[in-house]
Amino acid sequence: MYFGVLGPLLVRTAAGDAVAVPDTKVRTLLLDLLANQGRPVSADRLIDDLWGTRPPRNATGTLQARVSQLRTALDRAEPGARRLVQHGPAGYTLAGGVVDSNSFEQYVRTGRLRDALGLWRGPAYADVPDHEFARAERDRLDNLYLTALEDLSGRGDDVLQETTALVQQRPLDERLHAVHLRALYIAGRQHDALRAYEELRTALADELGADPGPELAELHQAILRHDPALRRSTTLPTPLNDLIGRADALAAAQLQLAQNRLVTLVGPGGVGKTRLALELGRNHTLDVRLLELAPLRQDDVLDALATTLDLRDESTDLLTRLMDSICTRQLLLVLDNCEHLDLADLVGRILTRAPGMRVLATSREPLGLTGEQVFDVPPLTRSAAVELFQARSGVTDDVAAICERLDGIPLALELAATRVRALGVQGLAERLDDRFRLLSGGKAGPERQRTLRATIDWSWELLDDEERQMLRRLAVHAGTFSLEAAAKVSELPEHVLLALVDKSLVAATAGRYRLLESVAAYSLERLTEAGEEAITRDKHATYYLQLAQQAQLHGPGQRVWLHRLDQEAANFRVIPPSLELVNALAWYWYLRGRYGEARRALAAALALPDQQRALRTKAAVWLAGMSATDAQATDVAAAGDRALEEIGDDPDALWFLTMTRWAYGDPVVLMDRIDRAIASFTDRDDQWGVAAALSTRAQLNIVHADLDAMRRDSRRSLELFNELDDDWGRLQATYALIVAAEISGDYPTAGGYLEEAIVRAENLGLWTEVSFRTAGLGRIALLTGDYARADELHEQARRLAIEQSNKSAEEYAEVGLGLAARRQGRLDDAERHFTKWLGWLEQVGGMPGIGFISNQLGYVAEQRGDLATARRLHQRGLEVARQTGDERAIALALEGLAGATEDPGRALDLLAEAAALRQQVGVPLPPAERFDVDRATHRAESVGRGRARR
Fold this sequence. Notes:
By secondary structure, the protein is mainly α. Among the domains are: about 1-130, Winged helix-like DNA-binding domain superfamily/Winged helix DNA-binding domain (Arc Repressor Mutant, subunit A, Orthogonal Bundle), CATH 1.10.10; about 160-230, Serine Threonine Protein Phosphatase 5, Tetratricopeptide repeat, CATH 1.25.40; about 245-375, P-loop containing nucleotide triphosphate hydrolases (Rossmann fold, 3-Layer(aba) Sandwich), CATH 3.40.50.300; about 380-440; about 840-950, Serine Threonine Protein Phosphatase 5, Tetratricopeptide repeat (Alpha Horseshoe). Strands 7-8-9-6-10 form a five-stranded parallel β-sheet, with helices on both faces.
């Protein structure tokens, strides 16, 4: 049953037929239940909502009559739908059905904004505008609608039709008017936008005696100056000042980028390649991702690219997984400072596998690829150089001679401009003249490099001793760094770094700092000359090791620390491997899903000689856990088991190796391990450990569908994680609760947990968890008969899993696609989805999955009429189920064999045996999962009656 609340009430059957809900009070009752989806509403509250201060004489009886009318209307349209309106101790609940507001919210959250707007037929709960029960939900949905309009407008989409209607209804809403003004501007109606602003300003003054707020006033100014940022949003760093003197180069490069999928900006260091690339990215229509390559070595490129594209790298073959994950992406990839790396093969693969991607590279030389469009970035013209120098220095004097001697190199101009205040134009010219005379005859390198070196040398000479020490010691950092890191590693006060920022030798962006590539190379040479490189690198390694060791990834600081460690990923990668470092970072890598990076780093550290045994054992456990779903790492898993034997009842190791293998290992061994872990955690009063281990034990009890044990352990785990304020833990604790609700047919509860989990996982940036939970919502949609939504959610989860390079999540999502395809009779599609995963499951030891897929393939064969093949597949599923001891899986296989036998008596016996087994474990098959059982029962009874008549 489909319910629409985004506008006037709409009710349709699953087949799309309109359902008439008679009587205003009955419709209001239904809307009240919809506004409290899945939550019971007491009879007293419903009476108050429906009749207010004038209830009927027999209010309870009248309410019951209205409920009966509602159930009858639903059941008449779709037999059995009366069950949607349930009554319990706490009141009445609408338990099931598809509500357009849920789909709307899901679309907005996942960025499918146009699909979201397509569901909007008018103000939410339009039939009950004055009823208090709908106010909060109506306001929330209206706000979400406005958010979708804002996001679309920010991407340059046309939302003018929607905003024009809304501003008439809400004439003083500044937030809405901001979206409307942007929409008018994007539609090419600048004058109308300006006029609308003036009308709003007048209305605010007349009605409220107020002026437009600062955000609206700033938007007004942006419209006046035709700010390009009005037409799209960008994730690129925002430059601190305007791009000067590059209008022609920008236009020409934009044309090249529009006509070619690979454009490389080439030119000498400091000529402005990066700045031009950033401007091209800001003006581009696609999503733009920037990868700064200057601090990277060749071996670091794949890991850094995966991070830039928000991908997980679980696989040992990172390149293959990376290619698979980007094949459907639509974006512009900016590769900055490529000259020291061999990128031709990688870029060629990207462009071949991902037709929706474009690459914009900056380098001192071409990449050397067929089809590459090389764009030479020239030095600034004389007039442009003068304009830039005057703008940066704040002087109006004649500086043409200085600019000419600086060869129009923007970096040189920027550096020189910072010294005008101290030296004056004449003093600057004199010093510059001396410096060029000194270096003009050198033969250390090409002229363009000597010119830039002269500029940096000159800037270096103007620094005091502390500033020089700081600048050269900053060279050991990779990517960006914090103010604290700069001070600790250099052992100098923070104000020294800030002085370098003022002199344009260090770039500052959003509270982080970095060296321009040319300055970094120069500073590293100075560090080596001073004999400080080794000791400074040691201090750098010590600082980042301590940072990793002090990270609080359990509890309330989890989100903040994850973000902080994300910022330092490049610095961690340049530190020589050690067991201390990899053990400190292992949990971070696990949470972020960077299993491939973790495995490589752990293996490298374990290969080092003369390491402490305890650290080696701990690292071996981390490595084994990270390899749980790697089909090529069985030897690693064995090493982890040996390590576990060495350390005995260490609860951390017992729990981690159980948690990472719970769906693939021997359930008896795993249960023994987790019980020991819980006992040890309890003995040492480790509440986080107890909570984590309880959540894992709850998952292990899924095998036997022990609902009481699942709920008991999960709820206690959730209580502990709530006390610890640990969001990752909350995700883990609710998993078995979701499964328990689904097994027992309580789909509203399961869906509620899943929705909450998706929001929490998104907030933490745990995208594989988002994939799993989205696929879980797909299962609920499947079980409630909404196959279109089930397919949509499973496909969304599958794509996200591919992007994150997570095989387990991908398998779970694709099996969901197979289940929905089989329910819809698309048997070839179902077979393809199922068969794809058998080989991988066999390699990783996923016996429960092998059994389940064997049964599903058996059902596919049975639905085709191939009963012999069906019996063979179901028999295999039965054998696997008996090996794992999963009673529900045994029942599933027996039910499959019943459908595949030609003997009706035998079929009914098998069905009875399966039903008894399900009853024995306390989980009879819920109605939504009786699809195959009902088919088998009907066939057996029909055949039996036919034989009896003969």
